[in-house]
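During the reporting period the student researcher (J.K.) took over the structure-prediction task from the postdoctoral fellow and processed the backlog of single-chain submissions. One of the processed entries is reproduced below for the supervisory committee.
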Amino acid sequence: MEKTGRDHPNSRVIAHFTSEFMLRAAANIGAYFAHDYEVVILFLAVLTRTGQNVMSDPKLRERFASYAVPIPDEYSTPVSRLALSRSTGLPRETVRRKVARMIEQGFLIEDTRGGLRVPSVLTEDENLLATMEPQLPNLRRLLVLLNNMGALDSA
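J.K. obtained the following structure tokens:
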């Protein structure tokens, strides 16, 4: 029987280094959003949801694996404010307020199909791309640490 949660022999190690990874990512990405971490969470939630179809389909994932190839708007899946509130745990009023400001700042747009999405032009923003760049070494660091400690071995 597979061990999960706190019964996993490496649960503390996994929790520690995953938390460290998340803090590093938040610090990097937070700078782009003036360290408003609710905005960071909302932006990442929208980005994740709108790219879900592409990342779930092996052919589309391969085609759009790099930021060098923009994802056409028709491949994105808009997300509602209510879904953002539910997925992030943020109050609906906070989501409404933050999203309104994010739209004003150009971080999000209302999709013609209903819901919100990240404008495709934003994925060409050099500042945003520079913000995302440290995520690869940050992820590698997490995986190397967990692998070296045997935390990725099945228990």
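The committee noted the following: DSSP finds eight helices and two strands in the chain.
J.K. will present the remaining backlog at the next meeting.
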